[in-house]
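Hello again, I could really use a second opinion on something today. I've been staring at a protein lately and its backbone has me curious. You're getting the sequence in one-letter code plus the fold written as tokens. I'd be grateful if you could look everything over and explain what you see. No rush at all, and the record is pasted right below:
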Amino acid sequence: EQIRQSKDRRDDQFLYLLKLDGTYHELSPKVKDLLDRYRSTDEGLAASLSEQSQASTIIAGIGGFGLIALAAVLLYVRFVARLARRLHNVAEDMKNVAIGKPLPDRGQVEADEISQLSSSLQEMVSRLDKLRAREKVMLDNVPSFICALNPECVIVEVSPGSSALWQYDQDELLGSRLSQFISDGGQETLEKLHAAFSERRLVSFENSIKARDGSVMELAWRCRLSDDGQTLVCVAQDVSRRNDNLRKIRSSQEEFRRMLDDMPFAVVTCDESFTIVSVNRACQTLFGYQPGELLNKSLSLLITGTQEHSKAMNDQLADIMKLAEDKPVALSAWGRGDRRLLTEMHSRRYASFGSNVCLAVFQDVSAREQIERVKKDFVSMISHDLRSPLTALHGTLDMLAMSETDDQPDRQEETLSDAQKTVETLVHLMNDFLDLEKFESGTAVLEFESIPLSELIDSATEGFVVANDLSAGSDSVGTTIKVDKSRMILALHNLLSAAGSSLPPEGRVVLAYSHASEDTVEIEIRRSGAPMSKRLKESNFSRYILLPKSDVGSQSSSGVGLALAMSIVRAHGGSLSLKSGIESDSFLLQLRN
């Protein structure tokens, strides 16, 4: 039964499967047809929806664009209208600036370019107002006459402050011709003004204007044509005082020129390159040249005899001129025809109208040199002619003094001693004269030797009375110096004698020596208690200065002692000077060691 039941169930299942298969085969075409219909319907709906979507998108785009365009147009119209209004305001402001009207208040300022332009315009107007105010103050107070002329030279405009300079009212000047105020008729002035109009160029000239009170003012004019070519702007400055000063300067120069021409010295004026620009009449007498022959020639023609413009020559001339500024320079100058002239030249530099001018003064010293030569020859002759007999007389007196006996009277001994001292003084004087002539003529021969400085000082102070407060001090112990010992001792003797001349009892002479520099020794002979005589200070170590007998030594003045001391020191390459102080006077002697 179970098997049968099981078989029946399988048969039922099989039948059910057969039914299902039949149903499947029956429904499959329908399902397929439904799927095809769904697929076609779906595709149609998709195409329809796509078309509807595209149409909707197009419609929405067109509508949106239209709205945006409408909004943009509305915004643009509003922006342009506002921008045009603001630009119109700026244009109105610029027009107001041009005609000089004040700018209206535009209210709140926005932060954009137009606002910046408006602010810059406001700032420009403010600065222009300040400049106009300043210009008005300057024009009203400027010490010059400022006016404008038309082509007929009629005054069409004048500054308010200018009319007061001529003492005329502004209305009196406007419409008047400039020529009616010119003192000399103004023909030359009118020619200058017409040239400014016709040639369109800047003109400058001077004329004289007659003021209302009858006074005459000298004016310097500068006139420039305006850009439109119809107006001539003129500025006139009062130069009456300047011209008066120039006339005084020219008068002084003419007077100075007359003074130079009347001077007995040859005066030559040169520029910075030593080109001769003027000479006086004495140049013709001294050098034999006509004044015109020397102009524009080099100064070297007179100093070296050659006409040369070169840097080397100018440097040489500059050195000579610099030396001649400190002290006269002896020159063998050149005249016409290679004629040699013994001259003494002085030079000075000064500024003249912005340039440096060199003034050279030549003095003919031929006659003076000849007199000096004759005097030296005379002194030399007298010295030699007297020296031999004096030497013989001195020897005779020495022999008489050595042969003294007890039976000789005291008066005879005293007379013989006085005669010895007198002859000794005369011999010393002759020796000084001869030594001085040798040093001045350059024929003296020095015998140099290296000696300790202390030894030189000890030898120089020997023979001077220590009791009279002659003392020696030094900070240069051990220093060696190279000198002609006998000549330098003679120079120090003469200086000590001069320092001790007329020394009061409380006075003293101090000799000290030290290093003035690394290679220079300084010897100081200082006198205190009473100043040196005025005659000695003013002598400048010249000849024939007779001094009283020295109070610190036994040596008296020969009259040429200071000049001989100076010559000896200079021959050693040293220097000698006199220094005056409040409590003491000193001789300062410097020698190279």
About this structure: The CA atoms of residues 394 and 421 lie 9 Å apart. Residues 466-474, 550-558 have pLDDT under 50 and may be disordered. DSSP finds 16 helices and 17 strands in the chain. Residues 2-99 form the longest helix (98 residues).
